Amino acid sequence: MTTLNTEPNLPAPDDFYDELINLHRGLSEAQSALVNAKLILLLANHVGDPAILRAAMAAALEDVAPRRGSR
Amino acid sequence: MTSYTNPIYAYRRSPDQDRDVSHHPVIIVGAGPVGLAAAIDLAQRDIAVLVLDEDQTVSVGSRAICWAKRTLEIFDRLGCGEPVVRKGVGWNVGKVFHRNDLVFQFDLLPEHGHRRPAFVNLQQYYVEEYLVDRVSVLPAAEIRWMNKVVGVTPQAGGVLLRIDTPEGDYALTCEWLIVADGARSPVRTMLGLEAEGQVFHDRFLITDIRMKSDFPPERRFWFDPPFHPNQSALLHRQADDVWRVDFQLGWDADPEEEKKPARILPRLRAMLGAEANFEIEWASVYTFQCRRMPFFRHGRVFFTGDAAHLLSPFGARGANSGIQDADNLVWKLKLVMDGTAPDRLLDTYDIERTAAADENIRNSTRSTDFITPKSAVSRTFRDAVLALAKHHAFARRLVNSGRLSVPTVLAESPLNTPDQDRFAGSIVPGAPAADAPVSGPGSKWFIDYLHGVFTLVAFGDAVPAAAAATLFQDDIRCRVVHVRAGSSGSEADSQVVIADSAGLLAKRYDGRPGTCYLFRPDQHVCARWRAFDLAAVRAAIARATGNA
């Protein structure tokens, strides 16, 4: 896969969603922020491909803030 | 300070002060490491050079302490590498800690077979002393102490300077002005020019202590250590049992308060242990910036070192890149002054060294942002990296306490001849020479055979002796170094034979028989081929000197 896949790819979406929310159960806001950041870094490294990561970042920024040019 | 006393260099009245307006071909403003290196290089090339310094001593305080391998190689070419290496403390390894754990380790010179280590730590005042000593034996170079430039006026064919001395002021003109007057660069201000960039909102206590210790000379950096929670610290050995210690203090720290021994001592005791035996030699509080001038060349005026570009110190790229500025500029100036290269060759000083400055700024900025995150989310990601580094290898490479200075590869330079042939390895056009042990009539090290002129290094019998003699007769002379199985008995002006005694030259350069590498006078590769062709070599030299 050389492009970001945003078609359904989670085998049991509700189960995943539940696990993601539960991951943060009992954590303070600061702890949650840290866990989220670690999760992003872990998954980013697993994906590896810079083009896919950039596409994911662009999709994340969409409708939140204007798109910026690359550095 | 117990370990060192600054020398005082005497002010001497010059005969120029009794004349109207004397003229010097090249004047350098600032006798710091960069100005002095440029002066030595010019004098070695038989160009008369005058250095003006507003003070009369070397660096006050240890300031730049990490001298990179490339800098040491340049110092070797300038005849002052040996004292720096002898007095200094060599090191290759750096360790980064988070709380109590080692999270990252780097070795800057993992391979053997280089004359110089990755870095030598030595206080800037010693380096400047050795450079001043070297200047003092070169008749073509003069330093005038207590000569402060107070006016700069570019004019046709040169620059007019107004200089203040203890005995009143006087005027000089020059054809070429090299500005090496440091971060605040009075000359830059006098010319109405600016350096643009950013300030990092943080403060650091930088202190030198004298301490006998068995700690190894490796660079040690801590994030959030028990002895300095939520901040960073650094420990690094210099000469004379002097140690550099940094403590990150945060933006709200009061610089005047933090410089006081009463504030510093508890921090040091926490770091080194209550029983540690040390003395504070010097301390200061710094805020760091990354800035550069948009252009380093302004007609007959060249900005070098901190006057041209300012960096945060994580990575040791400041003085080291300044020395490379001088190394880049002087051979070009020599050719232009000789009339063998056009003025536009000097534009490439700006092209090549602004590119280098951008690379250095990019790296130091990234390190500083990791050490001093600019926002809450940036801090969260930084802390996430550190947390992950304990257990996961990928995160260790993200830990950034400084990407240490490596010599710039001038990969995009217009002076390079692009490869037509295929080569393995990293010594591409634009890269500086890689060293290797050799046997030969002179030095045991390859780089010493690149004498500050164009040099064609030829593996095997690539270049006939007659062709080598021809190349040496050209207007821009080129010397040949033949790399063969057995070396010759002596070194001629035009050529020499050396042997690749450990096979490392062939390995590092992918040097199959017939291969030729063309080096510029600053020891950067500008072209390479799998076979010798006289016309191609001449064309590459022309291209590398703005003559094509």
Name the chain pair with the biggest interface and residue counts per chain.
A-B, 8 and 12 residues
Q: Rough shape of chain B?
A: globular
Determine Rg of chain A (CA atoms, Å). 14 Å
Q: What's the number of helices of chain A?
A: 3
Rg for CA atoms of chain B: 24 Å
Task: State which percent range the strand residues of chain B make up.
Answer: 25-35%
- Looking at how many chains there are and whether they match, the oligomeric state comes to heterodimer
Overall helicity of chain B: 25-40%
Number of strands of chain A: 0
The average pLDDT of chain B is 95
Summarize the structure.
The complex is a heterodimer of chains A (71) and B (548). With 71 residues, chain A is mostly helical.
Characteristic key phrases:
heterodimer; A: 71 residues; mainly alpha; globular; B: 548 residues; alpha/beta; FAD/NAD(P)-binding domain; Glutaredoxin; eight-stranded mixed beta sheet; 14 helices; 28% helix
Please explain how this structure is put together:
- The complex is a heterodimer of chains A (71) and B (548).
- Chain A is mainly alpha-helical.
- Helices cover 59% and strands 0% of the residues of chain A.
- Chain A is built from three helices and no strands.
- The radius of gyration of chain A is 14 Å and the shape is globular.
- Chain A starts with 12 loop residues before the first helix and ends in a 10-residue tail after the last helix.
- In chain A, 1% of the residues are buried.
- Chain B is of the alpha/beta class and 548 residues long.
- Among the domains of chain B are: 15-89 and 121-196 and 290-362, FAD/NAD(P)-binding domain (3-Layer(bba) Sandwich); 446-544, Glutaredoxin (3-Layer(aba) Sandwich), CATH 3.40.30.
- Classes of the chains: A mainly alpha (71), B alpha/beta (548).
- Chain A binds chain B through residues 33-34, 37-38, 40-42, 45, and chain B through 377, 380-381, 383-385, 387-388, 392, 394-395, 398.
